[in-house]
Fold this sequence. Notes:
alpha+beta; 6 strands; 4 helices
Amino acid sequence: xxxxxxxxxxxxxxxxxxxxxxxxxxxxxxxxxxxxxxxxxxxxxxxxxxxxxxxxxxxxxxxxxxxxxxxxxxxxxxxxxxxxxxxxxxxxxxxxxxxxxxxxxxxxxxxxxxxxxxxxxxxxxxxxxxxxxxxxxxxxxxxxxxxxxxxxxxxxxxxxxxxxxxxxxxxxxxxxxxxxx
Length: 181
């Protein structure tokens, strides 16, 4: 990888913004950094970029995820435990798409809280099934050496549904980045 790492770019953007803006401008820069963090967390999860995914988390992060269709609720402590769980649970040719919106973020110095509406889809080609759901994430964030990371993340399901793709007329999975060649 050439050029600055993501960590350096984030710190540089926040530092350059802080150098030339008012307090409200600094707060906007912090809010944007936290939005970008959450989006990166989900992008790297969906693309199975495990090192980058881990870099969105504080070393001492805690997480609680819940799903009626999985072995949930599950609680995790530490970056390594979360990354390894995700790597194992979402391995193979499982497809995930996580989308968040409606952020409500509050920054207080070097810490922040956030709430996000989540919509997710998980496709299990080997089991001919799809899970669709929605939830609200509740996160806390910590700024470490100028870089925002997730300190705690959890969500509570609004709904979750499963369906078999075998019975869907016309259903065909026409692309899967992780399908065996």
